[in-house]
Amino acid sequence: MKTNNVWFVTGASQGLGLILVRELLARGYAVAATSRHLPELQQAVPPEPGRFLPLHMDLRDEASVQQALDTTVRQLGGLDVVVNNAGYGQLGALEELSAAEVQRNFEVNVFGLVHVLRHATPYLRAQGHGQVFNVSSVGGFTGDFPGWGVYCATKFAVDGLTESYAAEVRAFGIRATTVKPGYFRTGFLSAESLGRPSAPLGAYQAVRESQAQHDALSGQQPGDPAKAAAVIIEASEAAEQPLHLFLGPDAYRMAARKIEAVQHDLQQWELAATATNFALAE
After folding, report:
1. 159: closest CA among 180, 145, 143?
2. Which of 115, 124, 209, 222 is disulfide-compatible with 65, CB 3.0–4.6 A?
3. What is the CA radius of gyration of the chain?
4. 29 is annotated as an active-site residue
5. Are 13 and 44 in contact (CB under 8 A)?
6. What is the mean pLDDT of residues 63-75?
7. pLDDT computed for residue 1 by the predictor
8. CA distance 256 to 217
9. Which residues form the Ketoreductase domain (predicted)?
10. Which residues of 240-262 are buried (b: 16+ CB within 10 A; e: fewer)?
11. Nearest of 61, 52, 63, 50 to residue 86 by alpha carbon
């Protein structure tokens, strides 16, 4: 008997979140989906009592998050799978970004996710089972992207948080996965979605080149988000849920390069870096 019948998906009015919601409903799951733009979500997927519950939720407002989760449990009868999908990209060299721009990216991508976990976990823990998918990025595993440092920092935070959270809740039958997509064809890179520096500096040529490359890539990303959604669902139904789920051949290539670079540094500095304990008394 399946236990993952009620899903809670954030950031569901567009992109991967919306596609995931549609695929879940097509497979017979009950879904609560959240967005700051509720009319847009309701237009994309009409409400269906007992099956689909669209909800307004502001990730930066903890009370709003708690209310959305309480409403989900009350109206759909439970909570089995949480997908923290909401987030956005912030472009700009660190020197170019204002403190407010940095803080907002962390508020949405990290602290909003923490609000969801804090208020969803008591439900999952009490029932003795549950699944969590935190949508990170391959940029949460490798940060070699000029101009994406703050965004990568938020996703590195999601990865580290998910690893620790998985260790904390394993004893309660809860499984957690950090999902690390490569480039998928959603609106993530669009002018409307992507945060840009308020004060760009001409000195950062590598950042401007990265910006131009990503602008050209928008709408041409190689990854099919419908296939990404299908893999997430497949992972939820698997006997052993992965802790790390990379999505896309590009994500696999970038991850392999990062692992190779780390192994190189480990080997190069092993002799000096491991001779750092106190000397044993003779």
Report:
1. 180
2. 115
3. 20
4. no
5. yes
6. 98
7. 34
8. 22
9. 5-200
10. ebeeebbbbebbeebbeeeeeee
11. 61
> Is residue 98 among the annotated active site residues?
no
DSSP H or E stretch at residue 245: strand 244-247
HEC letters along 29-51: CEEEEEECCHHHHHHHCCCECCC
Q: State the Cα–Cα distance between residues 12 and 18, nearest whole angstrom.
A: 5
For the beta carbon of residue 232, count every other beta carbon within 10 angstroms. Answer: 23
How many CB atoms sit inside 10 A of residue 16's CB? 26
- The model's pLDDT over 212-244, given as tens digits with 9 standing for 90+, comes to 999 999 989 999 999 999 999 999 999 999 999
- pTM higher than 0.90, yes or no? yes
Give the end-to-end CA distance of the chain in Å, rounded to a whole number.
62
Alpha-helical (H) ranges within the chain are: 15-26, 38-44, 62-76, 99-106, 112-127, 149-169, 205-217, 225-237, 249-273
Of 219 and 177, which is predicted with more confidence?
177
Is 180 labeled as catalytic in the residue annotation? no
Q: What CA–CA distance (Å, rounded) separates 110 from 138? A: 16
* pLDDT at residue 67 greater than cutoff 80: yes
Of 29, 137, 155, 236, the active-site residue reads 155
- Per-residue pLDDT band for 21 (boundaries 50, 70, 90) equals very high
Residue type, 254: M
Q: Which amino acid is at 198?
A: S
- Asked whether the predicted pLDDT for residue 46 surpasses 50, the reply is yes
- Of the candidates 151, 165, 183, 204, the residue annotated as catalytic is 151
Catalytic residue chosen out of the listed positions 35, 136, 137, 236: 136
